[in-house]
Design a protein that fits this description.
With 480 residues, the protein is mainly β. The chain is built from seven helices and 18 strands. Helix content is 12%, strand content 42%. A 14-stranded antiparallel β-barrel has the order 1-3-4-5-6-7-8-10-11-14-15-16-17-18. Strand 12 (351-353) and strand 13 form a beta hairpin. It is elongated and about 75 Å long.
């Protein structure tokens, strides 16, 4: 892995290209909707709730199924998405006698996310294309450090009982370093050069190389110093009663846990796909993406398992498009996302113990090969969508998507940083075609308000996380 890191980091051309793309594509992003993957990429896909694995419509199709690049004609598509997620979290310290609940709504509620695609016919059997898209990400910014204020209350309870806890004023902190503003910022960019082959008049195969670029920052996690290999080497009494609390004088903190600014990661994977028309009214599609193997975040090597490893999960999608009439297409897709295949995401996080948050059985400290993580599980995504060509100038789309929550109830504590709990998504969109060569496409998506609760978080008290989302997206397409 060290050799892989050096290969990327010592390539000036690669770093320059990544930084150039970041100027356009790395506006801060937040949790998408199916975990940290998007429901759709580009408004034609989003308008149908992502049901495009068997129903390609533009050059963004390689983000889902590379086989579709040979079925959309020669074109260029560019879109901008305005994304507004509302995230909140709460830790209920009244359970131990305090007079208040510690809660906060994350700031930074608007994000601009671009996507781009182009496709070109090489000969009668081969098409080539390039798709660049924001895969997803996680972002939270809490003015109130929920971990630190909760640790202050629980520390009072551990030393003085309920009476002492009840006397702790709201807003009290432990005084631990690096516990100011709390949050994370993860952005992921995928660059997908694609080849599509027509192997039969009604069947195409596609292959995309997935080049990944990630940017990450964490801040305010000083309360978890005792969960790092560096911090655990100090005197055990360095952690205040109640766990995740103030540090004693002379404690040597990890320099690779939090508050290190943005760090970058690079990697690659592949995606394969097939689309086949098995009946004049029925088209099937299949696509599978490998894990994208990323270099480590060195600045956060004692946060993510595997010394800063944060790969992008693999996934597979199958779907069917039913052409009910020349003007109406109905589609259904099923997707499986393998979050558990990435240790820093899938390994369980802290669990409650009599002394406060502790390590789950079989796992180790943050940053180690078997280190704790966010506890995400694999999820299934079910999508239905429709496309109706109202007349030559207008096309209407609508869809609905449902997915499991990737977060088990007992994993809410760490996921205050990434409250990706949304399950239900409703979408709508349309395309206006003013001329033979140009299109304008609009889409809207609403992720319904969802709150996930547990009566006993790793702090030993009730906790909850919640989010709802709205976004609009506009795309201009030029058809050659």
């Amino acid at each position: 892995m060290e050799k892989k890191n050096k290969l990327w980091r010592h390539s000036g051309h690669c770093r320059f290209f990544a930084l150039l793309l970041s100027t356009l594509f790395f506006s801060p992003m937040t949790s998408a909707t199916t975990g940290y993957f998007a429901v759709g990429y580009g408004p034609k896909s989003t308008g149908m709730a992502g049901t495009v694995v068997a129903a390609p419509q533009d050059a963004m199709i390689a983000s889902v199924n590379p086989a579709g690049m040979g079925l959309v004609g020669e074109r260029v598509d560019f879109s901008l998405r305005l994304f507004s997620p509302i995230r909140e979290a709460e830790l209920d310290t009244t359970a131990v006698g305090a007079r208040f609940r510690i809660n906060n709504e994350s700031g930074r509620d608007f994000f601009v996310i671009p996507n781009f695609g182009i496709t070109k016919q090489i000969n009668n059997k081969v098409w080539a294309g390039l798709t660049v898209y924001a895969n997803g990400g996680m972002n939270t910014t809490y003015d109130v450090n929920l971990y630190d204020q909760t640790a202050a209350v629980l520390g009072a309870f551990a030393t003085g009982g309920s009476a002492a806890t009840a006397s702790v004023p709201s807003g009290t902190t432990t005084g631990t370093p690096d516990t100011g503003t709390l949050g994370v910022d993860l952005a992921q960019l995928i660059i997908a050069p694609t080849l599509t082959f027509q192997i039969h008049q009604k069947h195409t195969l596609g292959l995309s190389l997935l080049l990944g670029v990630q940017r990450f920052e964490a801040y305010g996690l000083g309360n978890f110093q005792c969960f790092t290999p560096t911090g655990s080497g100090n005197n055990p009494s360095a952690c205040a009663p109640g766990g995740a609390g103030a540090l004693t004088p002379g404690f040597v903190p990890s320099k690779n846990l939090t508050n290190n600014g943005h760090d970058w990661s690079y990697g690659f994977g592949i995606k394969v796909g097939w689309i086949g028309q098995i009946h004049p009214r029925l088209t099937l599609g299949f696509a599978a993406a490998s894990k994208i193997y990323m270099t480590e975040f060195d600045e956060y090597s004692e946060l993510f398992a595997g010394k800063g490893d944060f790969d992008i999960p693999g996934n597979l999608t199958v779907g069917v498009a039913f052409h009910a009439s020349p003007d109406l297409t109905l589609a259904f897709d099923y997707q499986r996302i393998f979050y558990s295949g990435v240790d820093s995401v899938g390994n369980a996080g802290p669990v409650p113990t009599p002394l406060g948050p502790g390590l789950p059985p079989g796992l180790s400290l943050l940053g180690l090969e078997n280190g704790i993580g966010f506890g995400w599980k694999d999820i299934s995504v079910y999508r239905i969508g429709m496309k109706y060509d109202w007349n030559p100038g207008w096309t209407i789309r609508a869809g609905y998507s449902y997915n499991d929550s990737p977060i088990p109830d007992d994993q809410i504590l760490f996921n205050i940083l990434a409250p990706a709990v949304n399950k239900h998504h409703l979408t709508f969109g349309f395309t206006y075609t003013p001329s033979e060569h140009s299109e304008w496409t609009f889409a809207y998506i609403h992720a319904f308000d969802e709150t996930q609760r547990t009566p006993r978080s790793a702090f030993g008290i009730p906790a909850s996380i919640g989010m709802y989302q709205n976004s609009i997206e506009l795309e201009y397409s030029h058809r050659f």
